[in-house]
Amino acid sequence: MYKYMTLLLGVAFLAGCCCTESTLPIGNKSSYKTAMGTEYVSAGLIEKTWKTDPKVDGTWPMPKPVDTSMYKDATDGVKGVVTASTAGSNAKEEVGNLFDNNQNTKYCTPNATPWIQYQFPAGVKPAIVAYAFRTANDAAERDPKEWVLQGSNDGKAWTDIDAQKGVEFLSRFEVQLFKLKVAVSYQYYRLVVKANHGGEHFQLSEIELFVNK
What we know:
The protein is mainly beta. Helix content is about 15%, strand content about 35%.
């Protein structure tokens, strides 16, 4: 009897998973996998990492391609100092992850509107012409929505460089590029987040500060 009940439970679990699959949105399966990132988690549930629903034809809206080939990240190979207004949620989600060129690490903090600062070494003031953000692996409500990028040469007096409002990210690990109207040269750069998309936490996986090649 025990073996029989175990078999029935196993069949029921598999049936539940099949039912989950049958409720997937219509459309190209490979597009679905790309959009969702991780199809299945424990107990056959689906982890949705795509922010929007599929279009009428069943395909998924894709982020605009971002070409950064004409730029170089000014923080690469530079031993800058990275600080933030609040610490990460744990030791694996600290602010230094934003500049490690690894999308699989992130800065996640229990503060919806932190500031993040990058200080170049003494005497280093690259001419920044653009910057980019890459979203992290989960929780679209933590994505930045409104912010101000500032620059300083002493870490005390700050000048607004760029401001953005109403920014939407479609997917996880998406890159968006923001070009400056004029190049700026400062030793300190600070991102002041004004709003996210409604979450109690804020997160990003990467920030890049670009100079022309």
